[in-house]
Amino acid sequence: MPKMRFLFTGVIIITVVGVYLLTQLPKTVEVLAPADLSWLYHPLIAHRGLHDNNKRIPENSMAAFKRAVAEGYAIELDVTMTKDRQLVVYHDKKLRRGMGVDRLLSELTYSELSAYKLFGSDQTVPLFRDVLSLVAGKVPLFIEVKNEAKVGEMERLLYEELQRYQGPFAVMSFNPFTLQWFRQNAPEILRGQLAGSFKVSDYDVEYAGTTRLPWYKRVLLENLLLNVISQPHFVAYEVQNTSAARLKKLRQLGVPLLGWTIKSKAEYEAYKAQFDNLIVDAILPELE
Question: If we measure between CA atoms, which residue out of 284, 278, 241 comes closest to residue 258?
Answer without folding.
Answer: 278
